[in-house]
Write a structure and sequence with these properties.
The structure holds two protein chains of two kinds. Chain A is α+β, with helices and mostly antiparallel strands. Helices cover about 60% and strands about 10% of the residues of chain A. In chain A, a hairpin with a 2-residue loop joins strand 2 and strand 3. Chain A is globular. Chain B folds into two domains: about 220 residues, Rossmann fold, CATH 3.40.50; about 60 residues, Alpha-Beta Plaits, CATH 3.30.70. In chain B, about 35% of the residues lie in helices and about 25% in strands. In chain B, the strands form three sheets. In chain B, strands 6-7-8-3-9-10 form a six-stranded mixed sheet, sandwiched between helices. Chain B has a four-stranded antiparallel sheet with strand order 2-1-4-5, with helices on one face. In chain B, strands 12-13-11-14 form a four-stranded antiparallel sheet, covered by helices on one side. Classes of the chains: A alpha+beta, B alpha/beta. Chains A and B meet through helix 1 and helix 6 of A and helix 2, helix 3 and helix 4 of B.
Chain lengths: ~325, ~325
Amino acid sequence: MERQIEKQRPTWLQRFWAITRYEMLWNIRKKRFIGALIFAFVLATIQFALPALFNISENPYFAITFSVGNLSFVLFAIVTAMNSISGEYESGTIVPLLTKPVSRTMVFLGKLFAIFLTILTAYAVIYIYSIVGGIVVYGPQYNLQLVPLALIGDIISTFIWVAIVLAAGSVTKNSLLAFLMAFGLFIALAIGGGLISQLSDNPSGLNYIPGSGVSGTLNVSGGQNITVSNITVNTLSSVSTGTDSIGNNMVKVVLYPTSNVSFYHRDIFNFTAPPKLLFAESMGLIALRSIGVAFVYIAVFLFIAWYAFKRSQVFE
Amino acid sequence: MEPAIETTNLTKRYGSLTAVNQLNLKVERNTIHGFLGPNGAGKTTTIKILVGLLRASEGTARVLGQEVHVDQADLKLGIGYMPELPRFPKHLKGKELLDIYGRMYGMNQLERRAQIPKLLDLVGLKGRENDLIGKYSKGMQQRIGIAQALLNSPELVILDEPSIGLDPVGMVEVRELVKTISKEGMTVFVSSHLLFEVEQICTHITIINRGVALVSDTLQNVSNLISGPITLQVEIVNLNESVIAALKNLPYVKDMTKSNNTLNIPLKTFDDVRAEISKTITNAGGIIVAMNTKGHSLEEVFIQLINKTQGGKP
């Protein structure tokens, strides 16, 4: 053992990468991460297998309208971020970590980047799977160059939940509470949002909370009409305004930059009544708003998570 | 050069409980400084303030010449810290852990490749470096804890109860290790509630109880603090009154006690007077068959100090 007389100050990048590496190794070795990956694959398989069961053999828009899905967003957020900060406190590993020459901001950013890389890798694999599956089941796919846009959108959607989980974990220092708070919020918003969407004549408030938002119909001439049991659906026409559909909406803006989305209210107690037109919005506005809302949530909750972590003391 | 550690009126309160109370501590460089106190005395709290894990309620702490604050990354380049009962990520292998921590210190690949095997060898984990830490025993976690504290060859090594969880052989090894790293020029600040451990390895000690520093000095001075100089135990054949009278005439001999053929001779001096005592006994007709010095063990000093501050209550 030789003493280093003159120590070199590590660069910002060296410290950042060390933390990222530390966190990445943790993420990919988590059993529940493998579980979430398997779950997402199952959901993806259902997405391209289910229409095929209805004898739909052609859908060239499958790959660009594919999404990992809102349940997967929450699950991936939970498995990658649930004990990222709180778990360190619970296990006591925070003590040796915070006594290394890395600032808490650096630890936070490194962990966040590792979560991003982990989710990016997982989603990329799932998207590749969806493209291959889409081609096999539905034939040649259009506009595959837009798939990365859908993937980025899904990551933004997921990061709302990552931020919420991190904030809950960082404030409470309890992984189980972080999980329950995030998943409870997801369920509450999903149920509440669904009810408001069905019952209210003015559901536009849903545009500003994480979730599915309001469902509308894109007025496009393109797309593929699919008829199932005498009902014709255009593969591109369905639009959701919420933060769960950022990827899909970005793709639709690129494909139909000037198109509008109409929002209707259907009386669920009287299905025979014609749907009532509530309002119409441009596709561009919908996509931009959902991205804006997502970034506000991400910024606010990440700030809470960072601030609680930065100010915390290590008692145990 | 500024002391390795210097605290001024350092205080830490948890609600109504004062864990550390107006602590003034000075740890000189290139010493092995023991931080001794019973469980709950405030040792770990003090150390956590020194390494930036806790904020002081009052007072200041300076480490390696810099004032300590929570979240002060660069200061930790010069500090190696092993927490009490350290816990490391279970999903990492021992070697991976040291590699990642090495990267945090800015060690390049060559440095890490040179340093990590040496440390693994030093702490006796060679051959187990590729096992997951989750499979390590408590003692092995303690060992990897020591290795990571020495990774960057720090100027100051802070060890919080390094022997906890180790078997007797491991405890001896840790003591030897502390002596070794001190010889390499590192300052070692080691907390312990084990008196014999501190006595065996430290050059300086601070005794703390209920958050208050009772004494801080060299080991020798602390040992002499309470009851003064040592006592000689002399076993004599033909122990007669003339021997006792001759010894009583010596100016540095206090009241003696006799037990069978053994004399306990408390001394008033710190000088080595064994030769003169030996000569006096022999001249008076006594035959010395054994002579031992009986110092005031740290344990005695410790108990006396604790009793003083607690009004005799344990």
